[in-house]
Amino acid sequence: MSTSLFVLGEIGDNDYTYFILENRSTDAVIKPLVIPKVVAKIENAVKVLIELGAKTIVVPGDFMMGCLPRFLTIFQSSNPDDYDESGSIRRLNELIQQHNHAVMAMVERIRRRCDDPAVTIIYADLSGAAHEMIHNPLKHGFDKNGTLVACCGDGGPYNSNSFVSCNATSGLCPDASKHIPWDGDHLTEAANRFVARGILHGPYAVPPILSTCKC
């Protein structure tokens, strides 16, 4: 346990998706009620790992839900105010931002209370990595038109018309490495590589894994 690297998450996306698809209010239900419960479960899991002897634990925040093709398709809107400057859905990203702030606060709380100096808890900023890719795609090898559009899908403005848009009959983009989303929910290998490098070396991990991990 003491020489292993534990990655705890990301956790929360499926919980929030369940309530969002039931049209539950993000402000009245999800933010005040669901987020604290999700973060409490993550906190408990971190504490259990420490009790079992873990020394290096990575706790990721969640990816910006409002930038995923599935949700962009489900919640298409004619109101420009529903979108941020990247074309992502503003209210969903604000929900994830609140979740991530709660996770960061939880990580800091455990750090302060942990009396074992050998324990390192690392927050991984997945949304920060996503923001950089989406706002500066050309800099990182992505196509400007591939930031919000799935590579594997079944049509529509985001190539994610149905709930499960990528299957054996789906069309594929010519070059997946130029896209950030692979399908309606998941990233391409190229996008995941960018995120992983940012967590290993920084700046999307506090502290960067390779600067602290003794595993």
From TrEMBL:
<protein>
    <submittedName>
        <fullName>Uncharacterized protein</fullName>
    </submittedName>
</protein>
<keyword id="KW-0325">Glycoprotein</keyword>
<dbReference type="InterPro" id="IPR036514">
    <property type="entry name" value="SGNH_hydro_sf"/>
</dbReference>
<dbReference type="Pfam" id="PF00657">
    <property type="entry name" value="Lipase_GDSL"/>
</dbReference>
<comment type="similarity">
    <text>Belongs to the 'GDSL' lipolytic enzyme family.</text>
</comment>
<dbReference type="GO" id="GO:0016788">
    <property type="term" value="F:hydrolase activity, acting on ester bonds"/>
</dbReference>
<dbReference type="InterPro" id="IPR001087">
    <property type="entry name" value="GDSL"/>
</dbReference>
